C-alpha cells in the first residue's frame, strides 16, 4: 500500500472528518453572511436559500463520508491486505462512520432553529 | 527522490537477528564518542534530546510553580471579603499572568518538552530528526519566557485577562506597555511551539523503530502527532491575531476599532479558533501518556487501541468546531450558536471512548495502586467532572447564565488540572526512572497525590456554587454578606493544600532525581521501548518490533538491543545518526546524519528573544540590530546543514544497505518544509478570513466611501509576475535534476526569478498606496495593507533564501546530488508566489465581485 500513494491512504483515513469540516464551514459561513446581510428569507430558484444550502451541503458531506465508509467496507474483504493496510482501512471505516453522526449532528440546529433570530 | 528503491516489507519478522556477535572492536566506543556531550560552558550547546528534553521539562515546571505562586496570592486575597493584601491593579496583573503563564509557558511547553524527551525513546530512535530545532525552540522559550515573567516584577505585566480582548487592550484603554508584553512575548513563544510541532510531526512519521507500522505505533506517538497537527492549524490564528492587535496598537491600524470599520469580535474569533483547540492541544498529549501508563500499571494491553486512535483523530478535528462556544454571549445568531453547541456535545464522544477504554483496561488487568496509578484515578475522576460541566456550559442558555462567573473558573480548572496536570504528575512519577538512577518515593508519592487530589477538589468544587450564587470572575474582592465568604475561604484552604502537595513533590525530586549514567531500569515491567537499556545515543541498536507491546512479546529484546544485534549498532559516518523510516510501514529508508552541538542555534534564540524584548520596550534600533544578528546566526546554523552523502551506502545489518543522504518528497527536510508551508498558509488564510470578516461587518460599501481601489491592471500584472517567477524556479529545479553535475544555468535562473517576485511584491503595495490607500483611515485600508505588506515580507524571506542558496552554490555546496537546501528553497518560493497570487485575487477581485453587496 505504502508504495502506492501513502498520502492518498492517509487522506482517505481522515476524509470523513474533512467532509464534516467542509460542511461545518459552509453552514457557519452561510448563516453568518445571510444574517449579516438580511438574506435569511431569500429565495433561490423558488426555494428558501438558507435551508437549501444547509440541506445540500449536508447531503454532499454525508455522500462523501458514506462513499469512504463503503470503500473501506469493500476493501475489508480483500484478503491480501497487510496488517498496516488493514489498520488504516479500519481507521477509514471508523472515522467515516463517526463523521456521519457528526455531520447529522451539525445539520440539526440548521433544520430545527429559525434562521436569524 | 534519491532515496533507496523499495525493499521487502518489514511487517514480518526478519530471518534471525541482523547483526552477529561478537561486534567489531571500537563499534560501541565510536557510537559513544559521537554522542558524547560537550563539557563546560559548551554543554549549553548540546542538542541531544535526552538533555534538551530534561532542561525543557524543568523550565516548564519552573513556570508552573511561578504561576502557582500567583494563584496562591490571588486565593490569599480572596480568602475573606474586602481584603487588602493586593490591590486591584496587582490583582489584574496576577490573574492575567497566571492564566497566560499556565497556558503558554507551562501547559503547551510542558507537553512538548516531555515529547522531546520521550518520543525518540518510545520509538527507539536515536534522536528527533532536527535536534537543533528542538534546542532552538527550548532556548527561545527559555529566554522569551523569563523576559515575559520579568514584567510582573517591573509592575508592567499584562493586566487585561489572558485572552486580551480589545477594545480593553487597545491603545485608548491600555496605553502602557503591559499589553505589548503579552502580544510580543507570547507571539514569540508561539513560534517556539510551532518549531516544536514541526519536529514532532516529522519525528513521529519518519524516525521510528523498524517495523513500527502505524498499527503498532504507540498511542503516545499518535497523540503527539494529532497534537502537533493541531498546533500547526490552530496556532497561526493567534499569531495573526497578535500581529493585527500589535499593528493596531503601534500604528493605529483599526482592525478592532468599530468607529473606523473594525470589529472587536474579529479578535475573539481569531483568539478562540486557537484557544479552544488549545484545550485539546494540552489534553491529547496527556491522554497519550495515560494510554501508555494504564496498560503498564494494569499489566495488560490497552483495550480498544483502534478506537482510541479514532478518538484522538476525532478530537483533533471536532475541537476546531467549538470556538464560538466561548462567544455565546456576543449576540451571534442562535442558529450559529447551535452549530457550535452541537459540535461541543459531539466532542464528548471521542473523550468518552478514551475514558471507557482506560476503565476497561484497568478492569481487565490487575492494577497496583502505585503513585502513577493513583494520579490516573484522580485524573479520571476530576476530568470526568470537568467534562460534565463542559457539556453544561455547551448548552447556550445555561452558558448565558454562567458566563463570566466562578462556575466557569471551576469548570476550566477541573478540565485543565484534571486533564493535564494529573496525567503529567502521573507521567513524572512513571517516567522518572527512565532518566534517573533512582525512582521517586512511593510513600511520599501517596502524600503528594492525597494533598493534590483533596486540595484540588476543596479549592475548585466550591467555586461552582460561588459562581451559581453570582460571583463574577476577575474581581479582586467582594463584599461580606453575599453568601460568598465560606466558599472562598474553603477554596483558599484547598489551594494551599494543593500547593503543599506540589512542594512535597519538589522535595522528593531534590532527594531522588539523579539524571545521567545508569537509569533505574524497567521498574514497572512496562511493555514499551523507552524501557530498553539506553545511553546518550538512546538505544545501542534500533530494533524491529513485532507488536505494540514489544518488551512483553519479545522478552530478549533488551539484551539483543544492548549487544548491538539489531539495526545500525554503531555509526557509519562517525557522526550522530538517526535511522529514517517510511511513514506507514516504518521500513528503513536512509541514515540521517543529525546535526550535533553548536552555538548558532543558541545565539539565534537569544538574539530573536532580544529582538522581541527590545521591541516591547520600544528600543527599536537596538531591536533591529538584534534582529539582524539573529538572522545572521540562523544563516550560520543553516550553512552547516545539508552535508550531502558523507559515506557510501552502508549495511545496517541483515543485508539492509542504506544511503547516508536522501532528498526529495520522501526526505525528512521535505516533510518539514511541507509542514512549515501549512503553517504559513494557515496564517495567511486567517488574514484572508479577517479581510472577509471585516467586509461582512461593513455592509454599506467595500471599499468604504471615499477609498479608491488600485487599477485592475496592477493586479493582473502582479499575478503574471509571480507566475513567471515560479516558472523560472521550476526550470532551475528541472535543470538541477538533469545530467549535468552543476549546471551553471541554475544560479542564473534563481537570480532571474528574484526580479519578477520582487517587482510583483512591490507593485502590489505601490499600486494601493498610489491611489491614496490609508491603513489608518479604515479597517479596509488596514486589512489590504497588511495583506500586501505580509506578502512583501515573504518575498523578502525569499530574497534572503535566494542569496543564501547562491552563496552555497559558489561555495560548491549545491550540486545534482547535494540539493536539499535548493529543493526546500524552491518549495518555499512556489508557496510565496502562490500566496501572492491569492492575495491579489482577493484584493482586486473580491470588491469588484461583492463590494456592493
Automatic annotation (TrEMBL), chain A:
The chain crosses the membrane at residues 20-40, 52-73, 93-113. Keywords: Membrane, Transmembrane, Transmembrane helix. The keyword Transmembrane helix applies. It comes from the Bacteria. PROSITE patterns: PROKAR_LIPOPROTEIN. This is Uncharacterized protein. It comes from Enterovirga aerilata.
Automatic annotation (TrEMBL), chain B:
Residues 35-543 form the Cytochrome oxidase subunit I profile domain. The keyword Membrane applies. It is found in: Cell membrane. Gene3D superfamilies: Cytochrome c oxidase, subunit III, four-helix bundle, Cytochrome c oxidase-like, subunit I domain. GO terms for biological process: aerobic respiration; electron transport coupled proton transport; respiratory electron transport chain. GO terms for molecular function: cytochrome-c oxidase activity; heme binding; metal ion binding. One of its GO terms (cellular component) is plasma membrane. PROSITE patterns: COX1 (PS50855), COX1_CUB (PS00077). The lineage of its organism: Bacteria, Pseudomonadati, Pseudomonadota, Alphaproteobacteria, Hyphomicrobiales. It comes from the Bacteria. The chain crosses the membrane at residues 54-74, 94-118, 138-157, 181-205, 217-245, 279-298, 305-325, 337-361, 373-398, 410-432, 444-469, 489-507, 621-639, 670-693, 713-733, 745-767, 779-807, 828-846. It is a multi-pass membrane protein. This is Cytochrome ubiquinol oxidase subunit I. Belongs to the heme-copper respiratory oxidase family. Its main location: membrane. It comes from Enterovirga aerilata. Residues 1-23 are annotated as: Disordered. InterPro entries: Cyt_c_oxase-like_su1_dom (IPR023616), Cyt_c_oxase-like_su1_sf (IPR036927), Cyt_C_Oxase_1 (IPR000883), Cyt_c_Oxase_su1_BS (IPR023615), Cyt_c_oxidase_su3-like_sf (IPR035973), Cyt_c_oxidase_su3_a-hlx (IPR013833). The keyword Membrane applies. SUPFAM superfamilies: Cytochrome c oxidase subunit I-like, Cytochrome c oxidase subunit III-like. Keywords: Cell membrane, Copper, Electron transport, Heme, Iron, Membrane, Metal-binding, Respiratory chain, Transmembrane, Transmembrane helix, Transport.
Amino acid at each position: 500500500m505504502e508504495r502506492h500513494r501513502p498520502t492518498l491512504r492517509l487522506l482517505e483515513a481522515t476524509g470523513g472528518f474533512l467532509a464534516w469540516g467542509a460542511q461545518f464551514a459552509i453552514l457557519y459561513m452561510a448563516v453568518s453572511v445571510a444574517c449579516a446581510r438580511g438574506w435569511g428569507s431569500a429565495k433561490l430558484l423558488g426555494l428558501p436559500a438558507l435551508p437549501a444550502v444547509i440541506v445540500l451541503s449536508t447531503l454532499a458531506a454525508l455522500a462523501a463520508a458514506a462513499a469512504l465508509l463503503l470503500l473501506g467496507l469493500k476493501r475489508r474483504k480483500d484478503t491480501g491486505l497487510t496488517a498496516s493496510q488493514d489498520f488504516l482501512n479500519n481507521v477509514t471505516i471508523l472515522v467515516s462512520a463517526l463523521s456521519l453522526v457528526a455531520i447529522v449532528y451539525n445539520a440539526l440546529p440548521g433544520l430545527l432553529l429559525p434562521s436569524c433570530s | 527522490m534519491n532515496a533507496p528503491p523499495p525493499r521487502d516489507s518489514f511487517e514480518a519478522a526478519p530471518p534471525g537477528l541482523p547483526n552477529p556477535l561478537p561486534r567489531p572492536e571500537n563499534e560501541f566506543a565510536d557510537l559513544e564518542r559521537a554522542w558524547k556531550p560537550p563539557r563546560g560552558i559548551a554543554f549549553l550547546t548540546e542538542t541531544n534530546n535526552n538533555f534538551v528534553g530534561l532542561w525543557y521539562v524543568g523550565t516548564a515546571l519552573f513556570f508552573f510553580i511561578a504561576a502557582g505562586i500567583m494563584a496562591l496570592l490571588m486565593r490569599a486575597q480572596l480568602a475573606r471579603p474586602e481584603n487588602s493584601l493586593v490591590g486591584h491593579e496587582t490583582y489584574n496583573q496576577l490573574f492575567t499572568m497566571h492564566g497566560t503563564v499556565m497556558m503558554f509557558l507551562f501547559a503547551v511547553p510542558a507537553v512538548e518538552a516531555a515529547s522531546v524527551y520521550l518520543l525518540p525513546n518510545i520509538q527507539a530512535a536515536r534522536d528527533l530528526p532536527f535536534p537543533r530545532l528542538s534546542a532552538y525552540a527550548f532556548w527561545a522559550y527559555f529566554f522569551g519566557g523569563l523576559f515575559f515573567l520579568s514584567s510582573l516584577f517591573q509592575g508592567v505585566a499584562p493586566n487585561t485577562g489572558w485572552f486580551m480582548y480589545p477594545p480593553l487592550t487597545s491603545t485608548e484603554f491600555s496605553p502602557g506597555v503591559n499589553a505589548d508584553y503579552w502580544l510580543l512575548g507570547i507571539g514569540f513563544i508561539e513560534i517556539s511551539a510551532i518549531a516544536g510541532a514541526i519536529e514532532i510531526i516529522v519525528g513521529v512519521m519518519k524516525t521510528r523503530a523498524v517495523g513500527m507500522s502505524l498499527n503498532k505505533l504507540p498511542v503516545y506517538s499518535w497523540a503527539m502527532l494529532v497534537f502537533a497537527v493541531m498546533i500547526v492549524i490552530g496556532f497561526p490564528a493567534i499569531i495573526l491575531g497578535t500581529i493585527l492587535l500589535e499593528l493596531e496598537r503601534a500604528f493605529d491600524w483599526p482592525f478592532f476599532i468599530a468607529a473606523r470599520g473594525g470589529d472587536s469580535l474579529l479578535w475573539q474569533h481569531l483568539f478562540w479558533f486557537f484557544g479552544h483547540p488549545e484545550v485539546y492541544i494540552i489534553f491529547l498529549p496527556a491522554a497519550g501518556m495515560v494510554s501508555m501508563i494504564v496498560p503498564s500499571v494494569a499489566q495488560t494491553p490497552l483495550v480498544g487501541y483502534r478506537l482510541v486512535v479514532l478518538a484522538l483523530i476525532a478530537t483533533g478535528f471536532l475541537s476546531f468546531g467549538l470556538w464560538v462556544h466561548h462567544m455565546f454571549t456576543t449576540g451571534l445568531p442562535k442558529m450559529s450558536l447551535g452549530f457550535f453547541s452541537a459540535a461541543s456535545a459531539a466532542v464528548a464522544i471521542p473523550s468518552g471512548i478514551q475514558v471507557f477504554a482506560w476503565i476497561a483496561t484497568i478492569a481487565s488487568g490487575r492494577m497496583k495502586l502505585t503513585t502513577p496509578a493513583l494520579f490516573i484515578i484522580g485524573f479520571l475522576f476530576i476530568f470526568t467532572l470537568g467534562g460534565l460541566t463542559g457539556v453544561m456550559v455547551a448548552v447556550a442558555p445555561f452558558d448565558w447564565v454562567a458566563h463570566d462567573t466562578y462556575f466557569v473558573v471551576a469548570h476550566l480548572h477541573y478540565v485543565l488540572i484534571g486533564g493535564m496536570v494529573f496525567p503529567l504528575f502521573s507521567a513524572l512519577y512513571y517516567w522518572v526512572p527512565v532518566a534517573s538512577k533512582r525512582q521517586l518515593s512511593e510513600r511520599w508519592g501517596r502524600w503528594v497525590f492525597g494533598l493534590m487530589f483533596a486540595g484540588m477538589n476543596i479549592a475548585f468544587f466550591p467555586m461552582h456554587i460561588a459562581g451559581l450564587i453570582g460571583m463574577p470572575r476577575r474581581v479582586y474582592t467582594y463584599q461580606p454578606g453575599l453568601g460568598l465568604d465560606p466558599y472562598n475561604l474553603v477554596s483558599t484552604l484547598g489551594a494551599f493544600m494543593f500547593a503543599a502537595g506540589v512542594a512535597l513533590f519538589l522535595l522528593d525530586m531534590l532527594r531522588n532525581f539523579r539524571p545521567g549514567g545508569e537509569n533505574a531500569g524497567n521498574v514497572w515491567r512496562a511493555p514499551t521501548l523507552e524501557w530498553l537499556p539506553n545511553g546518550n545515543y538512546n538505544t545501542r541498536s534500533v530494533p524491529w518490533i513485532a507488536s505494540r507491546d514489544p518488551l512483553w512479546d519479545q522478552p530478549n529484546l533488551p539484551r539483543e538491543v544492548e549487544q548491538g544485534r539489531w539495526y545500525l549498532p554503531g555509526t557509519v559516518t562517525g557522526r550522530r545518526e538517526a535511522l529514517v523510516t517510511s511513514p506507514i510501514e516504518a521500513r528503513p529508508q536512509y541514515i540521517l546524519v543529525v546535526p550535533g552541538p553548536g552555538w548558532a542555534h543558541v545565539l539565534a534564540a537569544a538574539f530573536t528573544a532580544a529582538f522581541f524584548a527590545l521591541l516591547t520596550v520600544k528600543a527599536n534600533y537596538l531591536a533591529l540590530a538584534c534582529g539582524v544578528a539573529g538572522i545572521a546566526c540562523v544563516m550560520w546554523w543553516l550553512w552547516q546543514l545539508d552535508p550531502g552523502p558523507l559515506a557510501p551506502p552502508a549495511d545496517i545489518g541483515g543485508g539492509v544497505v542504506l544511503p547516508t543522504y536522501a532528498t526529495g518528497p520522501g526526505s525528512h527536510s521535505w516533510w518539514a518544509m511541507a509542514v512549515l508551508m501549512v503553517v504559513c498558509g494557515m496564517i495567511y488564510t486567517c488574514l484572508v478570513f479577517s479581510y472577509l470578516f471585516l467586509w461582512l461587518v461593513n455592509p454599506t460599501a467595500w471599499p468604504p466611501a471615499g477609498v479608491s481601489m488600485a487599477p485592475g491592471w496592477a493586479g493582473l500584472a502582479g499575478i503574471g509576475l509571480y507566475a513567471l517567477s515560479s516558472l523560472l524556479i521550476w526550470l532551475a529545479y528541472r535543470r538541477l535534476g538533469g545530467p549535468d553535475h552543476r549546471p551553471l544555468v541554475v544560479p542564473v535562473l534563481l537570480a532571474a526569478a528574484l526580479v519578477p517576485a520582487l517587482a510583483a511584491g512591490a507593485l502590489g503595495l505601490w499600486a494601493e498606496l498610489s491611489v491614496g490607500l490609508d491603513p489608518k483611515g479604515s479597517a479596509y485600508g488596514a486589512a489590504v495593507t497588511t495583506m500586501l505588506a505580509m506578502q512583501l515580507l515573504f518575498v523578502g524571506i525569499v530574497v534572503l533564501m535566494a542569496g543564501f542558496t547562491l552563496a552555497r552554490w559558489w561555495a560548491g555546496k549545491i550540486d545534482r546530488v547535494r540539493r536539499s537546501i535548493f529543493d526546500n528553497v524552491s518549495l518555499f518560493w512556489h508557496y510565496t508566489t502562490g500566496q501572492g497570487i491569492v492575495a491579489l485575487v482577493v484584493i482586486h477581485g473580491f470588491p469588484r465581485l461583492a463590494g456592493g453587496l
